[in-house]
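Support request from a user on the community tier.

User writes: "When I paste my structure tokens into the form, the page sometimes reloads and wipes my input. The last time it worked, I copied everything first. Here is what I submitted, just in case something in the input itself triggers the reload:"
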């Protein structure tokens, strides 16, 4: 199971996880909206309803090739009767269901795939379901933004290797010591820092002693996109034997142009 996240609604913390590509929401937490003392009983009462079993069975048939339909049929027949009982654990054991799972230990509880969880939330409270859907969508949008930032940060790292290789092949004589070589690398990194951020790595550290990492760790997505492009271009300029001063001026002009375009694109909400 993946890392547990959480949503807070009406002072209730609702845990979420991702399992095998599916988003799951803790319905035990949702049940606290109706019964904060015995939320498990709320889940069991919902699962004994015929409409609930019909929905759960259909979801499994559509998403779970290992679902035991033969074992499901008698359960559906008995569902809703006074003597019928159902729990998440029993449901999984009898039918090999994957739409509902039980997690023990820290972050434990009964989790349901998001569509099932929304169905349960609607049964508990229509108002609560609307708030839950809206907040869950907001959470997923934030996750996508973070994934986008991470992907672009990784792209910048990959391009950094291309950049340093060009430095090694063209700017660093073989007779230099490793210590001297690192000075050249740092110097070339600051060519990009100056072109994009207008500040060297040392100047940034002196201005931000309380922050960990480096200036690029705090760059925006647009800055990382631009940085990735500048690294590739600088590698080309180095291979063409362009003097460092000329490269800095040219890269700065390109950075200004590209950042203007990226900002305008972002304002039109086309940058995802």
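"...and here is what came back when it finally went through:"
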């Amino acid at each position: 199971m993946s890392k547990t996240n959480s949503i807070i609604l009406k002072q209730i913390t609702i845990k979420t996880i991702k399992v095998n590509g599916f988003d799951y929401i803790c319905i035990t937490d949702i049940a606290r909206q109706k019964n904060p003392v015995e939320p498990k009983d709320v889940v069991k009462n919902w699962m004994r309803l015929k409409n609930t079993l019909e929905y759960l069975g259909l979801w499994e048939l559509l998403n779970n090739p290992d679902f035991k339909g033969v074992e499901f049929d008698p359960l559906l027949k008995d569902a809703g009767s006074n003597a019928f009982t159902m729990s998440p654990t029993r449901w999984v054991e009898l039918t090999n269901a994957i739409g509902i799972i039980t997690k023990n230990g820290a972050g434990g509880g009964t989790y349901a795939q998001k569509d099932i969880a929304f169905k349960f939330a609607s049964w508990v409270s229509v108002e609560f379901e609307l708030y839950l859907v809206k907040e869950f969508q907001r959470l997923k949008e934030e996750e996508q933004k973070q994934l986008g930032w991470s992907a672009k940060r990784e792209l910048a790292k990959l391009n950094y290797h291309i950049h340093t290789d060009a430095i090694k092949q063209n700017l660093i004589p073989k007779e230099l010591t490793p210590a001297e070589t690192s000075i050249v690398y740092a110097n070339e990194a600051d060519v990009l820092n100056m072109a994009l951020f207008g500040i060297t790595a040392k100047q940034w550290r002196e201005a931000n002693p309380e922050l960990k990492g480096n200036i690029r760790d705090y760059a925006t997505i647009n800055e990382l996109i631009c940085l990735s492009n500048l690294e590739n271009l600088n590698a080309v300029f180095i291979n063409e034997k362009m003097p460092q001063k000329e490269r800095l001026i040219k890269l700065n002009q390109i950075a200004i142009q590209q950042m203007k375009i990226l900002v305008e694109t972002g304002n039109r909400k086309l940058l995802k």
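Agent notes: The reload is a front-end session timeout and is unrelated to the input. The longest strand covers residues 12-19. The longest helix spans residues 126-170. Escalated to web team.
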